[in-house]
Predict the 3D structure of the following.
Amino acid sequence: MGDHLKADIHMHSTCSDGGYTPEQLMGKCAKAGLSIVSLTDHDTTAGLEQASKIAEKHEMTFINGIELSTRTEGVSVDILGYGFNIDDQSLQKTLAFHRDKRKARMDEMIGKCQEYDLHVTIDDVKKQVTGETYSRPHLAKALISKGYVETVSEAFDKFIGYGKPCYVLKEEEMKPQEAISLIHQAGGVAIVAHPVFYNLDDHIYSWFEQYGLDGIEVYHRDHHPTHVERFRKLAQKVENDRKENIFKTGGSDFHHESFGRVGEELGITKLPYHEAERLSDFVLQKNKI
């Protein structure tokens, strides 16, 4: 089955909130001995073309990816998309709309920081933004550069995490069903990302029936063996009840070796290779039709 080979299909570049350009990231993937890879930047497809070229050069199989931000039941839920058409107009229009919303939210959070005597400006944040998307890690880095905190996680814990004094809720976020539909209409496969963070197992189960969800990220780096077992069982239940296979994906959610998480490395992957292969084969076949 090729399980001595390695795959990682959840990672980020400077096009969203990662620490390496798409080219650098794919180079690191090759060095780490990965054979199937995907770039899943937040709410942008900007890095996919370049990443795909470099992956091909290194003889790695590349799957187009994205991570869409949604909200349901008061919880932020990320939906991963794979194997979609980058040029889909509806997808690109929706992404642009939500990027504008992120920028407006950033302005508001900066305002709150200033009220809290954290003298940070939009220009300070812009210096940290390497792609098209404004996100809280960029604000965290600006706070570090000003000496208010020492790490990204400290910035979140003290100021910009959910419920903290400078936090602003995202407005008009997509619902999971909208993200799933958007990915489907662009010809892609929709997977719920790192479900351990949501505690919405029953909802996730229902999304397969209601919205046509295609899979669960069972093997995320933050899923301990008990979590892997929990979501493997959930996937099994869906498959038994629906009499069809679903995708069981995973990856490192890599941003940078020292980016807010301790000891984050590429090439240490929990994802069984045959699961990644199943997705890449499916996507390849679909795109041929």
